[in-house]
Prior knowledge:
By secondary structure, this protein is an alpha/beta fold. The chain has helices at residues 24-29, 32-36, 55-75, 99-110, 118-125, 129-138, and strands at residues 3-8, 40-46, 81-86, 143-146, 150-157, 160-167. The strands form 2 sheets. The protein has a 3-stranded parallel beta sheet, with helices on one face. Helix 3 packs parallel to helix 6 (129-138).
Amino acid sequence: MKLAILHISDIHIRGMSDKVISQASTIASGFYDYARNSDCCLIVITGDIAFSGHKEEYQAALELIINIKGLIEAEIDGREVDIILTPGNHDCTLKPENAARTTIVDQVISNNNLATNNDIVNHCTAAQKEFFEFRNCVTTAEPISDHKLWTEYELNICGHTIRISSVNASWMSRIPESQV
C-alpha cells in the first residue's frame, strides 16, 4: 500500500493576482511521479491558506486547489485525490479586533479549563468562520469526528485504514501574535 501526500502550507493568499495562483501546474507536476506510483493521493494543506481569513482570499485559494487536484487526477487516470485542511493563524479574521474575543482568549490562557467550554470555543473560532466554510467546500474526505478544535479522518487504502487528525492550534490566535 502506497499513499502519496502533497503537503502545502503557508500560501497566504490575498487574491487572484497572487503569483501562486498561476503555479498550479508547476505544483501538480512536481507531484506526478509520486502520484503515479501510489494507491491513493492526498493533498494536505496545513495552515495559513489565506492571508487574513477573508472570503475573497479563499475564493482565490479555491481556484488554486481545484486546479492542482484536477491536474493530478488527470495524470493518474481519474483516480480521486482527497483533500484535508487545517487552519493556521492567518486563517483567522482578526481585524478589526473583537474585544470580547480578546478578553475570552486572555481568560482561557489564565484558566485552561475554560477551553473545554463549547460556548467559549464557538466564540473564539467565530474568527475562523470563512476557513470552516472553505474547508467544508474543499475537503473531500468525510470526517469520522468533527469538532472545531479537532477533526479526525479515516481513509481506506487497499484494505488499510489511515487515520489523520487535524488539530486547530490557531483557535486562540490574536494580533500581535505572542507565544504563551
